[in-house]
Each structure stands twice: as C-alpha cells, then as structure tokens.
Design a protein that fits this description.
Elements (H helix, E strand, L loop, with lengths): L21 E2 L9 E4 L2 E4 L4 E3 L3 E3 L3 E3 L6 E3 L10 E6 L3 E7 L4 E7 L9 E8 L1 E6 L2 E6 L7 E9 L5 E2 L1 E6 L2 E6 L8 E9 L3 E4 L10 E6 L8 E6 L11 E5 L1 E2 L2 E2 L5 E4 L10 E5 L8 E6 L11 E5 L12 E4 L10 E5 L8 E6 L14 E5 L12 E3 L11 E6 L8 E6 L12 E5 L11 E3 L11 E6 L8 E6 L11 E5 L11 E3 L11 E6 L8 E6 L11 E8 L2 E2 L5 E4 L10 E5 L9 E6 L7 E5 L107 E5 L13 E4 L7 E2 L43 E2 L12 E2 L48 H4 L9 H14 L9 H23 L40 E18 L2 E22 L2 E13 L10 E3 L2 E12 L2 E11 L14 E12 L2 E10 L4 E2 L5 E2 L2 E13 L3 E12 L12 E10 L4 E10 L9 E11 L49 E3 L3 E4 L17 H13 L3 E9 L6 H21 L7 E5 L14 H7 L1 E9 L114
Parallel strand pairs: 53-54, 72-73
Antiparallel strand pairs: 1-2, 2-3, 3-4, 4-11, 5-6, 5-11, 7-8, 8-9, 9-10, 10-18, 11-17, 12-13, 13-14, 14-15, 14-18, 16-17, 19-49, 20-21, 21-22, 22-25, 23-24, 26-27, 27-28, 28-29, 30-31, 31-32, 32-33, 34-35, 35-36, 36-37, 38-39, 39-40, 40-41, 42-43, 43-44, 44-45, 44-46, 47-48, 48-49, 50-51, ...
Helix pairs in contact: 2-3
Length: 1478
C-alpha cells in the first residue's frame, strides 16, 4: 500500500540536461523533473536519484541506458506519465501521479547469495534522514526535508506482499526485501512525494486537534502571522474541556511548539470547535474568537463565544468578552465568522447555533444564525439580524463564512450553510443562503442555493472562493459531502459565481467518483497557491482512499477566466488510515515568503489525537503531460503554446505523428483515412484491411470459394475446398445424386445445383419440398413411401380405399386414423358412443356385474366369488397370523437388542414375503376402472420418517408415533393424446392418511397406515366414487448396521387390498415392496437414499402402457434450519418399470417434494410440505400440498442403576445439607502491605449439582487435565465421599461455538471422560458416575457471541446429581464394598470382567450376598460376539438437540459403564449401556 502524500506540480517542458532525457509529466515534487540515463533529476540537477546497485552481501551496479517513454497502465487511472530504463534483467521505472512520483524496480532473476535482497540507490544534492517509517530528503545546505521517500512495498509473481524496509545509506538510501519464499520475478516500489513545511500534533488521545485551524493574523505585533489550532476534545483539568493552541509566527513560518494554550475550563465544553480572527477593537492587532458549543452558561449546552484580545505578548489568556447562547442545547458557537456585513468600520460577529429549537417548538433543531454588530471594543450582545430556515431539523448556521463581495456593491456579503434543509421529508438536500451586506439587511437571505440532491446535506461547509473567474465578483463554494449520485457518499463541491443578481444554480461542480469520500467536507478559497495571479479553490475529502483506506486528501483547483479547472491540478494526500486528512482546510498568506500562498490542513483523527500541516505553495502549469503544449481549453501563458487535445497523453499534441491506433495524435480533429474502419469489419487499412468497402475482406478473414482474396494475403480461394454441384435435369432446384457433377469456385453451368437431394430428377413435382399426396404410390417429398399411407395412428390400418401394394402390414378399413384404439381389430367398449371396431355401430352394455355392486360387501355367494372384496387369500391370512404372533411375543425380561433382532427380523420378513408368494397364485383379471394405486407419496409414520422416506433409522426402543397426514393433489391422473390432455381422470384429490409406527427394540420398527380419499373427476368414461378407502399398508424398517453418522437399513412394505373400487388408491391383489435405505450425516445435514422393488402382477390399463413389477428410487437431504425446532427435507422420487426405469413415459412418474417439520412441544409435531410432478407419469400431479399433525413418544428414560432404591420426594422439605460456605471477604486493609485474601471452597454441594467455583482447565484442543485443576476434582471426590446418599452424578462436558458441531461434541465428550477417569482412579465407585459430551448444544452466552468471556463461560464441565437416596435411610450402600474393578488400571492379562460377572469386593467379617440396600447381582450380560456391529451407531437426526429439544428441564441421563460412551454427537440413540446389579 502506498501513502501518496504530495503536491501535483505540473511541469513545463524544457531543454534537458541530457540529450536523451525524457521530461516526466506531473512530477508533483515542486521542481522540474526529467529522467536521464543515470536516473531521476529534479530541479535542473538540485537532486539526482541515480542508477541502483542490487545484490545481497555483494552489490552489482547496473549499466546506465537511455530512457524510454511508456504509456500508463490502463488499470491505473491516476497515472500521468511513465518513463522506464532497461538494465537487462532489471527495469527501473518512474511513474508520475497526482500524488507524487512512484519509483519501481522490476527484477527478473534472483541474485545469488544469502540474506535479504538489497537495492541501494545513490543520491546527489541531498541526504536521507529517518522520518518515522519514511526517509526525508534534505537538500544540501538546508535543514528541512523537501521531499519524502515512503510507502516502500514489494510483491512477487503471485502478488504476495514481501516485507520491505526503507533505510538511509551512506551513498543515499537502501531498500531491504525479505524474499525468502518469493516466486520470481518481483517488484520493489517506493514512493517519492513532497514533504510538508510544518507539522503540529498532540499526544493527548481524542484531543481532536485540527477540527478548527485558522491563520490568526499578527496577534503580537511582530509582523509575523500566528497559527491557531482548536482542540475541542483536549483534557487537562477537566474532561473534554477543549483548548486552543497558538503557534507564534516567524519570518520563515510558525514555531514547531505552541506558545500559548487557552483552556475551556468546563467539562465537555468543546472549547475550540470554531475559530475566527481579526482586529475587533481597532488597535492594529489581530484578536481571536473561540466557540464552545457545549459550554453550560445560563442553561445546559447553550454554548458560549469567547473573545481574546491580541497584545504585545501574543494574546491575553483571559477572555475580554463572552456571549452565551439564547437557549439550552442550542450549540451556540458551533460556527463563527468575522464579516464587515453592515458597512461600518467595525467588523460584525456571525454566530451559528444549529441545534436551536425555540423558533418553532414543533420543528426542533431548525437552528439559527445571528449577526452581532461590532462596537469598537467587542460586540453588541443583541443581534441586529437573525434568520432560521423554515424546515424541521434544518440546522441553520451549521457553517458560516465571509463570502466576499458577491453582488459587486463593495460591501462584504455572508454565506450560511443549512445542511438539514429539505424539500422532501426525511431526505435533507441541504442548502446555502447568501446574505447581501448593507446598512439594512433584508429579513430573508437574498439568494438561496439548493443543488437538489436528496440526502446530500449541501451546506455542510461554505466558504468564499475568491474571484475564480476573474470577473470582479466574489464567488461562493458549497460542500455537499453526503451526495450519493452515483457513488454512495462520494460527495461534491459546488461554486456559485458572483453577479449583480447571482444565479442560484451552481455554475461549477466536481464529484470524485469515489464511494465514501465525503468530498466537500471542508472548503476554502481566495488565495493563490500556484503563483499564477488567479484565486484558487481548496476542497477537502477526509475519507477518500488514496494509498490506504480513508487516508483523506485535499484537492486544489486553479482559477482562470473560465472558472475553476474541471479536474484538480494539485493534490495533498493523507498518510494515516482513517486519519480524516482534509477535515479542515485554509489558504494562508505567504508564510514562508516564497511568493506563493500556502496551505493549512487539519486531520482531527490522525493518530487518534489530531494533527495539522502546512504545505508550501508551488508553481503550476497546464502542460500535464510535459509534451510542450497546454490543454486546448485552458490558458497557457506567454511561453507555452496551446491546442493539446489530451493533456494526459504525451503522444498527442499539435503536429504529433499518427500511430495507426484510431486516435487523433496530431489534434487536428480528424482521423486519417487509413485509420478509419469504413466497412465496420473491425480493421482499418493501416491495420491490414485490403478492401475497406467489403466487410468480409480483412487480414485474418476466412477464405471463401468465390475467386476473392478475403484474408488479404494476395491469393484467391487458397486454403478452401472447391464446391461440388449436381445435375438438376427437371429444374426443380434439387440435384440428382446419380447424375453428372461439376466442381469449382466460379458460377456453375446452367442446370447444376449445390445439393443432391432429388429422388426423381425426371419429375418436377417430386422433390423434398413437395407436398405428399396420399395413396398415389409416389414418394412425392423424397422421404419414403411411409408418409404416402395415411396410417397416422400407427395401428396397422389406413383409410385408403385401395391398399394394393401397401404390403402385408398395412390394411384398409380404419374409420379414425387419429386414434390408435379405433380399428377393425379393436374390441368394442359398451356405452361410450365410440365405434372402436369400425363396424358402424356402438355396442350396448350388458347388465352390471354383481361383483361391482356399490356395497362391496360379501353378502351372498355371488359376491363372495368375486376377487374384489373377497376375504384375504390364504397367504394373506398367514401373514396376519405371523404379524399377530410377532406382536404378541412376550418375555418376562426384555432381550438385549442384539439378541432380539436375529429372532424378530426373520419372522417379520417371512410375514411380509408370504403375501408375495400368494400374489403369484392369484388371478390376473384387472380392469381399467380404478383398480390402480396412483399414490406416489406413501407417507411414512416412522419417528424420523417424513415425506416418502422413513429414513434408515427407525428410532429407539419404546418410541412410537401416531398421526394423520393430509394432502391435496391437482391432476394426479390425466389422459393424454400426443401430449394433448383429453380427460382429467383425477382432477382434484384430497387424501387423509391415518397411521402409526412402533419401535419395539432399538433399530427395528413396524407400522400401519391407511388412506381415505376424496376426489373430483372430469372423466365421463367411468363413474368414480367421490370418497373412497385405500389399501392398508404395513411396513417394517430394520437398521442392521451403523457407524458414526452412517446408517444402513432393510425395509419392506406390504399392501393389503382394502380399497374402494375407483378410488385409485389401491389394487385388487396384495403387493410386496422389499427395499433398502441409507443415510449419512455431514455436520447438520443428512443425505438420504432409498430404493425398493414393487412386486405385482401385470395391470392392463387399456391404454398405451401396462404396469407390473417396478423399481422405486428416492434421493433426499434434510437439515435443521432451527436446531431442535424445525427440520427441513428435500426429496426426489422416481418410479418405473424394470425395463424402462428412468426412460420416461406414462409408466415412469417423477416427483419432487419439499417439506418441513415443526416441533410444537415435546410430544406434538406439525408437518408442512409440497411438491410437483416433473413429467406426465401416472400419479405425478401438477402440484401437491401437505399438512399433518402427529404425536410421538420418546424412549422411556432408563434408571441409572437397575434395582437401585431411589427415595421418592417427600411432601415435607428434606433436611438441610450442611455445605461448607466460603468465608466472607477480609476487611479493607489498613496498612500499606495487604494481607492475601483467603479463597473460598473450590467446590460446594447444592440441591441438584455440585458447583465448582473455578473452571477445570485442559491443554488447548485436548482432553488432558492440567495439574492446576487436580485440587478442584479432589474436592468433588471429597464431597461424594462425605455424602454417600448421592447415588449417581452425571459429568457433562460443554464446548463453545467456535468449532463445528462434530468437533465440539467429540472434544466435550473426551474432556468429560477424562474427568470421569480421574475421579475413578482417585477411588470413587464408577457406578456412581457417568459422563457425556453436550458439545455446543447448551451455551451459557447468546448464540453467535464471540466475546472471550462468553467463550470461556461456554467451555465448562458440570456435575449434575441424577439420583439421591434418603440421607437418613438405613439402606445407604457401602460404595467401597461394591466398587467394581477399573479396567484401564488393571495389569496386562488381569481379568476385566468382560467374560465373567463383576463381583463385589470382599467385605470384612464375612462377605454378604449383597451390599446393604442393594439387590443381589445377576450374571453379567453375554459378551458381544466378535465382529458384532455396534447397533447404536449414529444418525444425524439424533443429535445434541434431540436429547430433549422440547423440555427446558434436563433429561435424566443414561448410566454408562467405565468403558465410556459410544457413538457420536449426532446419535442420541447412543444410550449409555447399563449394568444390572442385584
């Protein structure tokens, strides 16, 4: 990054010192600049920056060569010229900008040696001295730096910054670059700028030095002008009292330290916010006025103005006169000006009070400006003129300034800023009011200037601009820093030219095209910075980006007869990020006596304290590019010709040679003929176009076969293949593929064409564009004879009367060639008014089949013979019996899941396979009247099921869910004819599915559901019932394997025919659909995939497709938008026949669904969703909507230790537990050396927890406990030893929100486990302890908070009392007597109790069968078989939120064995294993 601080000095081209020198445009260094063979030369040799030497421990000099002028890089808008010198592998270049001269070194190869890269540059005529991070270049014989070298940066080929230092060197200066990991080539880039003449700063933070700075005039009568600097935030005796520093003037400029300090004397007075100076009492000495808008005079914050008189000592430090504001909180004194407005010998005081509200109580902060006339000694306390803008919050008087003589009446005028003025409510445009001076002032301003940009706050700053256009009238400058057109808060500056009757519309404006610049924050004018005799204008932009963000800048616009320049000619740039350089600006009379006015700049936020600089004026010219000609629109002076049509390009000037770049180099206003693209083909004659009349001819064009040189290479038709033409004997425009041919690039002979598409070249009526004539046995359109036969429906029959010669597969007799189901071989359907068999009549219907009686009840022998409504087949009955046997299985003690599943799952699969075996024995008598299940979405009632997927994790043992899901479908079944809808079999359908699901053992569950439908049809072919019942569905899910966040399951669905005929929600035979499901979690997102095969007998639909065994595949993803509260799932499902899966068609429906589940409490959940059918497959609706509600039951909580007696809570309060409390803090010390304060207990017992008073500390990102926390855990152990009635304590580990969910859970779980093991190793009974990680699920601070205190509070270990016995009971167990062995502390080979039951330790005086209060232990559970999978593997849904997302109270925890918990943070099914203790 570059801190580009400097003046843009536009140089006049002249005779170079070296014949090969190249003048450098806009050197911005206060002296003429040129680049010679040896380097950069300033001031005709006053300073020379020579050819560098480059290396490491050894430096290699570079050979001087002639410089060359380069064009500026296109991406660098601020570049005003570039000159380069090539030294082989090194190129030195100088690039001038509006801020200074950028010096660069491009190094192609890495120098040999070790250590940093060094670039040493010799200096002649100056020496380098340190100046902060910069180097000051002090001319020989002087003691002030005239230039600064600063902002040295380096980067490599990847654009990576390299550490760079700028150091003085005996030969000049040196650049040291750390290129250890650099990718070569690299660039080294320092910056040369002009140095400030004078600087003042303060070390007091928030002093805001420079908020107001002025040329105070000669206060002490020594003939030199003093500088006054306001510090409204300065604090010496009182907070925010403010101060003013006076810097005494000398013949060469102000002193570097302040001579007089004035203080505000009251807290938060803001003393020094505004300053004004002039001879008030007529003694020939300048006097100083200071505004303190926060001063409490007669009322709070009414504000005060102080007058300090000049004297021989410099200034009286006691105010000679003060004036308070008219009301509280008016900010009186926010702006000050001295103006001889009334035409008297005494100057008048102008005061702005922008927050005053008394003028209109209903429009607060209108503000006011007041004129207090001078009386020869001070000012009249009564204002002779006041004015307020009549809009709310106008802030009249925010800024005030002397405007000069705007109307030419020889009396000074006044300009007032009104930044809150608005014509549109809530959009302050801002305005400025000009008041003409005179013995009597008009009641209202004479000119109101409203630039008209909403939100611009024009008038934030106002100033006299002097006479910018030299017409004898004073001009006025207005700043609008918040103008946002087009860039946000770019700001703008406006100038209103003076006249007898000034035009209120600004005649000039400038915007920087830089977002956030706040351009126009400060303004001043009336001085001559460049010494050309015309007044100049200063504009401050405190937040414009230059080298760093918000460094700020001050632009200088020279004046001339045409008004201010269109772009700034001089620029000062700040040096500190967010320093607000340019917050105040003022033109100073020539302080350093060099014949040019100087510039005073304040940056109130620089170094957080404020800083003030003075920069010397410098001569300027209008030849920006140093080509010897000035801009054609500007005055050039007597020695410089004008007419430059682009003064930023040194290659464009009158008489310059043209360069064939479509640019007018010689500035004659026209391009040469050879630089004009007349045929608009993108190429001019000088660029290689050999024919400017033909857009297909130019260098690089593609050759065509036409005897023309298209690519301008002098050859015709080269690199092309000649064209081939075919004979066209019948002149129908189509050639004979078997006839004569002709090749070439010229026009072919008559009768030849460019195609060979004719199939009969002897008949002019036969060709590809001819219309086919049916049944004429001629291929009229040259396709084939197939379209000669009008068998449009492809049913093998045609409407032609004569079928001779049509072949054996085409027959006559079709009566409707647009309908495939109508031909002589089709069967007749009665009563539909369609003649399907083309015999000339429709078939009458026979009496109805008793099987189709509407009651569907098997109430007689005839009904019972029907297949629809009949009792279940033998296979179905057997399935029901097997299900009943499965549900009726009883066992006194539940088997563990691993032992139960091998017995249950085979029975369940057999029960579901039997209907499939029976299905193969059933008849295949189907009809097209509705015996078809068109429900694509068969909702699942599994606890984690949603949409069409039950997932791969049915849940924990004891879970169940019961509910109803309702869905609306539009057009789920329509009939199409060539993609045209002919009938809506199901136009609207509403389905209510009632069902439930139960999980008897972990990982295995089954459910039942049945749909009830209501439907509306537009189909006249069938009389469908409006309400019907669907098939009963039974489904099972068995999760047979899981690891971490991955689960695999087998599933099966069986459909029992219970549907109402015509409901389209069932079929006439049972169906079986075995399948699989899988899911995997990735953070909070779960990915789902499921597939199944639907076994059914073939269904003849009567249309163009049949249905049989089909495949189903669904893909889904689910996530928690609101963890624990809202679950969302997206699902895509496709079904299709085995032979045509994913090939499209009516038998291959595809459905897309999106749903969300909202948990309304612990037991209720609301399901919402929708979907669309993605093709015209059966059952795929145009769209669907779903809503459902269900209740669920979570797994029952397991006791901490089976059989452990736990006392029920008594109605009366339990006896108080004696807890050792921390001693009270010691009394305040009475001696110098304080006694150490005694600390409280490290842990203490409370009703539900053991509270630790210091956090347990671990190594970073580890579960290793630091020794400093051992005493805390020892005290927890002591509390448990002293209180045996505490039966079980759960150790919870918690983490902050910094990591991801999985990492936080794992770390918290491991840390809780480390605490568990430590306490067990210290002698605690492991049966009294369990642990679990909670991850980030229960933070103490607000979610998303990253303060260190909250993060540390979230990282914690807690001890929760899970169960407690009656303290006074006789059954308190002897925990030491029943303490089990600690597996990880046993010696190698020692039994761990895995294969044998854990026996209690022997007790003295005989070993009883059990410890007091505990039942005798049972045998230990059978050991897990080798290779047995862990069926408690996780599912992303079973995460930390699902532990109990609906209950504010903590769930009773599961008890874990000393082996620790299993699983991961996404699996709440990972219940801790329990031990049975007798």
């Amino acid at each position: 990054m570059r801190l580009l601080l400097g003046l843009v000095v536009l140089l006049v081209a002249g005779v170079s010192v070296d014949a090969q020198a190249v003048d450098l445009a806009s050197a911005a260094l206060g002296a003429r600049a040129s680049v010679e063979r040896t380097g950069l030369v300033l001031g005709d040799g006053a300073l020379q920056i020579g050819t560098p030497r480059i290396g490491r421990s050894t430096l290699v000099p570079l050979a001087p060569t002639a410089p060359r002028r380069d064009r500026c890089p296109a991406a660098l808008a601020d570049c005003l010229g570039q000159v380069a010198i090539d030294h082989g592998d090194v190129t030195t270049w100088y690039q001038s900008t509006s801020f200074g001269v950028e010096q660069g070194f491009d190094l192609q190869t890495r120098p040999a040696g070790h250590g940093p890269l060094r670039v040493v540059v010799p200096l002649t005529g100056a020496r380098a001295i340190p100046d902060g991070e910069a180097l000051g270049l002090v001319p020989t014989g002087q003691d002030h730096a005239r230039w600064l070298l600063r902002d040295a940066v380096s980067w490599d080929a990847r654009g990576r910054d390299l550490p760079t230092s700028l150091l003085p060197h005996p030969a000049g200066y040196a650049l040291h670059v750390d290129d250890t990991d650099a990718v070569w080539p690299i660039t080294v880039d320092p910056y040369l700028v002009v140095a400030p003449y004078w600087t003042a700063t303060t070390v007091v933070n928030n002093a805001v030095a420079g908020l107001a700075v002025i040329d105070a005039g000669d206060l002490d009568g020594d003939g030199d002008r003093e500088i006054a600097v306001g510090l409204p935030g300065y604090e010496v005796n009182k907070l925010g009292e403010g101060a003013v520093w006076i810097f005494d003037g000398t013949p060469t400029g102000p002193n570097l330290t302040e001579g007089i300090e004035l203080l505000g004397g009251q807290e938060y007075a803001g003393f020094g916010t505004a300053l004004a100076a002039g001879d008030v009492n007529g003694d020939g000495l300048s006097d100083l006025l200071v505004g303190a808008p926060g001063f409490d005079g007669a009322a709070q914050d009414d504000g005060r103005v102080f007058l300090f008189l000049g004297d021989g000592a410099g200034l009286t430090t006691t105010a000679a006169w003060t004036l308070d504001g008219p009301e509280a909180e008016s900010s009186f004194g926010h702006a000050l000006a001295l103006v001889d407005l009334t035409g008297t010998p005494d100057a008048d005081l102008i005061v702005g009070a922008p927050e005053q509200s008394s003028e209109d109580p209903l429009a607060p902060n209108q503000g006011i400006v007041a004129v207090h006339p001078g009386d020869g000694a001070a000012f009249d306390a009564t204002a002779v003129w006041t004015w307020t803008a009549a809009t709310p919050a106008a802030q009249t008087g925010w800024s005030v300034a002397a405007a000069g003589d705007v109307n030419g009446d020889a009396i000074q005028d006044l300009v007032v800023g009104i930044p809150g003025y608005e014509q549109v409510p809530q959009a302050p445009e801002g305005a400025a009011a000009i008041v003409f001076g005179g013995a009597t002032l008009n009641a209202t301003p004479d000119v109101l200037v409203v630039p008209g940009f909403l939100g611009a706050r024009s008038g934030h700053s106002v100033a006299s601009a002097g006479d910018l256009n030299s017409d004898g009238f004073g001009d006025v400058a207005i700043g609008a820093p918040y103008l946002s057109d087009p860039e946000w808060n770019e700001g703008a500056a406006f100038v209103v030219l003076g006249a007898t009757t000034p035009d209120p519309v600004p005649a000039w404006s400038y915007q920087p095209d830089h977002a956030g610049a706040l351009y126009g924050w400060a303004l001043d004018g009336g001085g001559d910075v460049d010494g050309d005799g015309a007044d100049d204008l200063l504009v401050g932009a405190p937040l414009i980006d230059t080298s760093l963000v918000d460094t700020g800048a001050v632009d200088v616009f020279p004046g001339w007869a045409g008004g201010p320049w269109g772009t700034p000619a001089l620029r000062l740039a700040g040096s500190g990020q967010s320093g607000w350089f340019g917050q105040t600006v003022q033109l100073l009379d020539d302080i350093n006596s060099d014949g040019m006015d100087d510039l005073l700049v304040g940056a109130a936020s620089e170094l957080n304290a404020g800083q003030v600089w003075i920069y010397p004026g410098s001569p300027a010219s209008v030849d920006l590019d140093a080509d010897g000609f000035c801009d054609q629109a500007l005055p050039c002076g007597p020695n410089l010709p004008g007419g430059d049509c682009d003064d930023n390009d040194p290659l464009r000037y009158p008489g310059a040679p043209e360069l064939c770049d479509r640019v007018d180099q010689d500035c004659d206003g026209a391009l040469p003929f050879d630089e004009t693209d007349l045929d608009l083909d993108g190429q001019t004659a000088c660029e290689g176009d050999c024919d400017e009349t033909n857009p297909t001819i130019y260098t690089g064009a593609t050759e065509e076969c036409d005897d023309v040189d298209h690519d301008c290479d002098g050859l015709m038709d080269n690199d092309v293949v000649p064209l081939t033409y075919w004979e066209d004997a019948d002149f129908d425009g189509f050639g004979n593929p078997n006839g004569a041919t002709w090749s070439g690039c010229l026009e072919p002979p008559m009768g030849f064409v460019l195609n060979d598409d004719d199939c009969r070249d002897t008949n002019i009526n036969v060709h590809p564009d001819a219309e086919e004539i049916a049944c004429n046995q001629i291929d009229d359109d040259c396709s084939d004879l197939s379209d000669d036969v009008p068998d449009q429906d492809d049913d093998g029959f045609t409407t032609c009367e004569d079928c001779t010669g049509l072949g054996p597969f085409i027959q006559c007799g079709d009566c409707d060639d647009g309908e495939r189901l109508v031909n002589p071989l089709m069967g007749e359907t009665c009563g539909d008014n369609i003649d399907q068999d083309c015999d000339g009549e429709d078939l009458e219907c026979t009496p109805p089949d008793p099987c189709l009686e509407p009651d569907n009840i098997c109430d007689d022998e005839a009904d019972c013979a029907c297949s629809h409504g009949a009792p279940l087949p033998r296979g179905g009955a057997l399935a029901v019996l097997l299900f009943a046997g499965l549900l009726g299985m009883r066992r006194r003690r539940p088997l563990p899941p691993r032992r139960a599943l091998p017995r249950i799952v085979p029975l369940a699969l057999v029960a579901l396979l039997v209907p499939g075996l029976a299905l193969a024995q059933e008849d295949d008598e189907w009809d097209a009247g509705g015996s078809l299940d068109t429900q694509l979405l068969n909702v699942s009632f599994a606890p984690w099921g949603w949409l069409g997927s039950g997932g791969a994790h049915p849940g924990l043992a004891g879970s169940f869910r019961i509910g109803v899901i309702s869905q609306y479908e539009r057009n789920p079944l329509v009939l199409l004819d060539s993609s045209t809808e002919t009938a809506r079999v199901l136009h609207h359908r509403v389905t209510h599915t009632v069902g439930g699901f139960y999980v008897p053992v972990d990982g295995f569950g089954f459910g039942l559901s049945i749909p009830i439908t209501g439907q509306i049809t537009d189909w006249s072919a069938q009389d469908l019932p409006p309400v019907g019942l669907g098939d009963l569905k039974a489904d099972v899910i068995w999760r047979f394997w899981g690891f971490k966040t991955i689960s695999l399951a087998l599933s099966a669905e069986a459909y029992i025919p219970t549907s109402t005929r015509g409901s389209f929600t069932g079929e006439r035979l049972p169906r079986l659909a075995p399948g699989f499901a899988a899911q995997a979690g990735l953070g909070p997102v779960t990915f789902l995939v499921a597939g199944e095969a639907m076994f059914r007998r073939k269904i003849h639909t009567g249309y163009d497709f049949d249905l049989g065994t089909e495949l189903r595949l669904s893909l889904g993803v689910r996530a928690w938008p609101v963890p624990g509260k809202v679950l969302a799932q997206l699902e895509l499902e496709s079904r299709g026949a085995v032979a045509r899966f994913l090939k499209g068609g009516a038998e291959n429906p595809v459905d897309l669904r999106l749903g969300t589940r909202i948990y309304l409490g612990r037991y209720l959940q609301l399901d919402l969703g929708g979907g669309v059918g993605l093709n015209g497959g059966y059952g795929a609706p145009a769209y669907r909507f779903l809503a459902g509600i269900s209740t669920r039951r979570l797994p029952p909580k397991r006791p901490p230790v089976e059989g452990m007696p736990i006392s029920e809570p008594e109605p009366e309060p339990e006896p108080e537990i004696e807890v050792e409390l921390a001693p009270p803090p010691p009394p305040p010390p009475v001696v110098v050396e304080e006694e150490p304060e005694e600390e409280g207990p490290l842990a203490q017992l409370e009703e539900e927890i053991i509270r630790i008073n210091k956090p347990i500390q671990f190594e970073k990102d580890s579960d290793v406990i630091l020794p400093v926390s051992y005493p805390i855990l020892d005290e927890v152990k002591a509390i448990l030893a002293d209180h045996p009635e505490i039966a079980h304590v759960l150790i919870e580990g918690h983490a902050s929100l910094e990591g991801n969910v999985a990492y936080n859970w794992d770390l918290s779980n491991r840390r809780a486990g480390s605490v568990f093991r430590y306490l067990v190793e210290q002698g605690l009974n492991s049966m009294r302890l369990s642990y679990r990680g909670m991850g980030e699920a229960i933070p103490r601070g607000a979610r998303g908070t990253e303060e260190d205190a909250v993060v540390e509070e979230d990282r914690r270990v807690e001890f929760r009392i899970v169960s407690k016995l009656d303290k006074w009971a006789d059954t308190i167990p002897d925990w030491q007597a029943i303490k089990p062995p600690v597996p990880w502390l046993m010696d190698e080979g020692e039994e761990t109790g895995v294969d044998e039951p854990v026996q209690p330790a022997p007790i003295e005086q005989g070993t009883p069968e059990a410890a007091p209060g505990l039942p005798a232990p049972e045998a230990a559970p059978e050991p897990a078989e080798e290779g047995d999978d862990d069926d408690s593997a996780s599912s992303p849904e079973f995460d930390a939120f699902e532990d109990d997302p609906f209950d504010e109270e903590e769930d009773e925890p599961q008890i874990e064995t000393p082996q620790g918990p299993r699983g991961d943070p996404f699996d709440d099914e990972d219940a801790f294993e329990t031990e049975e203790v007798e």
